[in-house]
Target: Ribonuclease R
Amino acid sequence: MTKEPRSRAGQSRRPGRAGRDVPPPADDTPIIHGAVPPREVLLRFISENPEQASKREIAKAFGLKGEARVELKALLKSFEEDGLLEKRRKSLVRPGALPPVTVLDITTRDVDGELIGRPAEWLDDAGVAPAVLIRQSGGPRKDKAPVAGLGDRVLAKIFPAKERGGPAYTGRVIKVLDKKKNSGMGVFRAMAGGGGRIMPIDRRGEEMEVDADFTAGAKDGDLVEIDVVRMGRYGLPRAQVKGVIGSVASEKAISMIAIHAHGIPYIFPDAVIREAEAAGPATMSHREDWRSLPLITIDPADAKDHDDAVFAEPDPSPDNPGGVLVTVAIADVSYYVRPKSALDREALKRGNSVYFPDRVVPMLPERISNDLCSLKEGVDRPALAVRMVFSHEGRKASHTFHRIMMKSAAKLSYQQAQAAIDGAPDDKTGPILETILKPLWEAYRIMTVGRNRRQPLELDMPERKILLKEDGTVDRVVVPPRLDAHKLIEEMMIQANVSAAETLEKKKQALVYRVHDAPSLAKQEVLREFLQTLDISLVKGGNMRSNHFNGVLAKAKDKPFEQMVNEMVLRSQSQAIYSPENIGHFGLNLLKYAHFTSPIRRYADLIVHRALVGSLGLGEGAITPDEEAALDDIAAEISTFERRAMAAERDTVDRLIAHHLAGRIGEEFDGRVSGVTKAGLFVTLPAYGADGFVPISMLGRDYYIYDEAHQALSGEKTGLGYRLGDEVRVRLAEAVPLAGSLRFDMLSEGRKMPTAVRSFHKSGRRKGAAPRRQPGTRPPRGRR
Model:
């Protein structure tokens, strides 16, 4: 039986002599009081207890005396020589770690509105400056602690973060050193006689006034950066323009707003461009020549870079009858982007490429991403390849990694490959149909047997794509069909990712995993209560598996509430993150999983490539001791940058759709209730993928009861109400394009609610005439 992955919450912690919690090693090697602990335990203790990282304090924490202290001293010395630790005064710290007290500049907010700071002084060759989540509430000191704001410089006490997936550190403000002017962005509107107004670009913003002497040459309609110079009790706040970004009417202005608002680096420094332009073709050193193997790329029709290629054939071994060999080749980015280079520092600062409907902000310059590392048809390209052996039952029997030189035999789109398999080959797919495409589909059929047995979470959430006109405005919103060609590539990439994690674990090589924790018990209970209203049961207990959720989804299949159940299951899930600690991937139902297949657009994959190169002795570009020591910080940073990219992409879509619908005020639309709160309803327009808000004041002159378990608002007098998933008719009442905000009036009469929903809860009582909530506030969303 396959062993269930253990979460960190299930691990024990052993108290040291000094009262500190000493973390257990990953392999459960016992920690003996008075004996030098295992290497990984010692390194983790130093990371998590920077204030107790002197030799004396470490010895005290583990109860070391005599010869054990001598052994500890030698071990710590070896850590320094290997670059895993460095000495600062009398304490030892991990390279790149922040000192216990640090000067921070508060630069931005996260998706929850919490302040994020970064070290005021940070060397460029030290990589990206780590983020620090500023804690300003809770605890007995909250009334005494100084209150900091965006743009301030502060002195802060630094603590290692206890939660994974966010910034690596949290900080408590000790003192505000410099109160900087509030800054932000807006759209400049010129006024007669000079000066102008700043129109807000976010939902909570307000108009500001700019005197004629402080416009910095801004023209009407320009997107500008501003400083707030005066806030008063009366009249509009006053601001001054400190920079002009460009005209808001330009075709890429909407995505530029998100880029600036979320602090996404989008201009490559000159040193990075020079380094990229100086790069030349890879050599055959440490490479196998696979140029005769007919690997092909299958990508979206508009793809500019191609980082993965595939090939499959029957396994000739008599020991594996009916089995297949599947080869996945991935662009060898690690050959070009070396640790601590300008390219590497910039890639880590970005974390990943960011995809907007009108542009891409790449992680790497085009010379690397679209040229030297793109697996172009008929061109020699370096790659890391994994060759996997599958039985006829879809079980992976073995795999091997190779550093190769390849030459893509064909560049196909998903639609092109699928059409050939469906009986409509073209001039390019016809000649390779029998020799390349059909063996790939046969391999996929076999791999699907294994996938079905594994039972990953099978959510049915259609993804919409915005198609733009030449002027950058929305043409239409489509839901591209989900083809077997998409599923084939997805499954082959998943198995390649699994193989990378397995190989690195076997080599005892540190790496960054892609992990996905099981849903919390609290979220499980909320989902369970909701499903009970639909007469669908969900098992109880902590040993939840993805197939339990699949059973729920199967019971909702083809029912009126199918989409509603899919959304609620999605909301119950934890967020996938990067971590050097493996807890498995709940959604994919995999014990070992690491991102390996997209190093052009994800820094996590680049780290895994370097780890493979180093652990397998495949030549230049291997992971360094400094990188290994910093994997905790790197994982936290790239997880944060991933969420930053998601938020920016989402905000851009909201603004584009709001701009598209701004001229249709008063029109009626079919919608679906996608969120229920005490303040009102969120309604999604399926035709556009847009979210809008219906304030509770627009639902009628009744008292409305909010029932979280049933995700419903029910009128106390009439018993009529609305539930998550209800199909409704709404009228567009307001659209604010720059804020991405829509507000609707409800036209559909509520339906009769079940008795359980109508039961009165005093805490949920809301009158229809209650004050409106800010229109356009976003409903909660989940992500696998």
In short: The two ends are 26 Å apart (CA to CA). DSSP finds 17 helices and 37 strands in the chain.
